[in-house]
Amino acid sequence: MEDKNNNKILISGNEAIAQGAIDAGCRFYAGYPITPQNELTAYMSEHMKQAGGVFIQAESEISAISMVYGASGCGFRAMTSSSSPGVSLKQEGISYIAAAQLPAVIVNMMRGGPGLGNIAPAQSDYFQATKGGGHGDFHCLVLAPSNVQEAYDLMSDAFDLADKYRNPVIILGDGMLGQVMEPLEAKSEKRKAKKFKKPWALTGCKGRPANVVKSFYMADGALEKFNLILQKKYRSMRQKEQRCAVSFISDAKLIIVAYGSMARIAEGAVNTLREQGKKVGLIRPVTLWPFPEKIFKQLTLKNKRLKFLAVEMSYGQMVEDVRLSVSGKASVEFLGRAGGGIPTEEEIIKKIKKIC
Amino acid sequence: MDKIYSHPKSLRNVSTHYCAGCGHSMLHKLVAQVIDELDIREKIIAVAPVGCAVVAYDYWDFDCSESAHGRAMAVATAIKRLRPENIVFTYQGDGDLAAIGTAETLHAANRGENITVIFVNNAIYGMTGGQMAPTTLTGQKTATTINGRDPQSEGYPLKISEILATLKAVKYVERVAVHDAAHIIKTKSAIKEAFLNQINGVGFSLVEVLSPCPTYWGMPPVKAAAWVKDEMTKEFPLGRLK
To answer: Minimal Cα–Cα distance from A213 to chain B, Å?
Structure first.
């Protein structure tokens, strides 16, 4: 549905992510159906070919991520998407992509778990996304959009970061963000996809020595040496890529920390409390890895009595990073529900009134 | 004097890590020779498996990707779809292709991907120390079937080539062996046909190669070659299946 006056279209979060990826120059998508992200796969099946790319409905999540590995290895911007149980299956491939230092984007529109769980929105895969997920010492960059416009806009950042660091980037959303329909101003944001040189890509060895995409280091000491290179890269990401959005933090006595869909509910609570004269603020991490720890350090240095409340659609996952970031210099409270339960504005307000 | 034989350009001049009498070194050379003869070295993107042949790229001098256990054909699918002008092949063992990667194998074949597959069947897991493979013969002793494979508990040897030959989208399947000179020559022409099919856009082509693993069969190389001929070919008859 297009409004001719302001170029806005009404679109779901899943579809916005798909269009954002295509506009960012993604030319390969492989996926496997799972609710609540099916609109994304369907959108790619309809639009990827006309964008000059390749769409494949794979036989499994494992196969889909392996196809992304192949696509990225031969130099193309590649993506897959899934929801929680499917992303568990993809962890093998994500570890290999991280190890082979390939750029790729993996979308997880989280649902309730563990196991088959249900199809309600949740944020219970935070640990999996930010602490490695697959085997070995590695990190994915993790971006958490909180509305449809941001879901679209972050896709070009995701592909640029993936190419810049030659590293997997995870878009961590949830079923609510995937399903909600909101106006999107796509055209104003549409920009030419950045070009990154990929001399390492497999293109056929004409005029150059053969390229190898690999993650196997058998010789004595070789793997440790390679791991140290990866760790150096992760330190650099940690230093340079922390992002968050903040509101009302300068005079706040208590700051809510929430990301994605949860941050929108938290924002409602902050606005209501501010109207009542309560000095409450909000930090919304946009990068979950690296976690925006710098802002917490700055704030706790300035205000020794500051309190934090982490609110999540999970049972205490992100709160661990909040605690690490404040390093014991502020009290950190927690409110969380999952498995179909979502902390409400009223619950958040009630909790805050109890704390302050 | 005319030069009639030389080291293939596609094969690096390095010493081998493969065991004495193992089929991989022979097969690496055959693949390199075929690629040279077809003059496609600069177009090749190979996908190596997990297992003994994981370091195939240490021997081959062309572009190559590793893949996770069993996922080679999924990796190759993406590469060939995005780069149809390149020549893409996978080189996989029986554990890789017929056990952990059965789904990838079956579906890449069923989609009729225009790729070439070299399937090295030595009826055992080599790199991990000689455990039962899906292709292990009935009665064959391995590290995990010390009294011999018993169909009652372990099932029968899996005939992947026969299964794939039933699929409409599969264009060429041939089973060959490398136990003697005559069969090595036949193997080379089968590999060539499989590559030519891809060049000509014919579609999915697979060459299954019966190949000795003297170390984990517990035999000297000459006896292992005889075992391919006398035992393996009974269960896995040679010839064109499609």
So the answer is: 5
